[in-house]
Design a protein that fits this description.
This protein is of the alpha+beta class and about 110 residues long. It has one domain. The chain has a 5-stranded mixed beta sheet. Strands 2-3-4 form a 3-stranded antiparallel beta sheet. Strand 7 and strand 8 form a beta hairpin. Bound molecules: zinc ion. The site of zinc ion has 6 residues, from loops.
Length: about 110
Amino acid sequence: MQRQKSLFYKKIKCHCGQNFKFQKERKHNCYICSNYANYRKCARFVVQEELLLEFIKRYCEDKKIEFKNNNEFINSILNYIYIREDNSIDFVYHDKSYQVYSSNLIKYTTNE
Ligand SMILES: [Zn+2]
């Protein structure tokens, strides 16, 4: 069986310097720091793919880009996602747009 790359393969950077890796949790597609998953050396912070896709889709709507649910598409628009130590999430796109998510703040900025 051919293994498919996860949607955000190598796109999610942790504040500790490692990438987040794909993991299934209770049937949800999730990502977790590989430093935690492999060595228990970082915080256990689980990010649901659904949440990330919400932001990506909002970006696509704004930019009038057709969203596609595959690795190549995500790579073509998204530069990286950065997980901060306080668990807020930065989305940085190739066109320099960015979004910030944290539990008490949702900030959305485009480069226009
Ligand atoms: Zn980490």
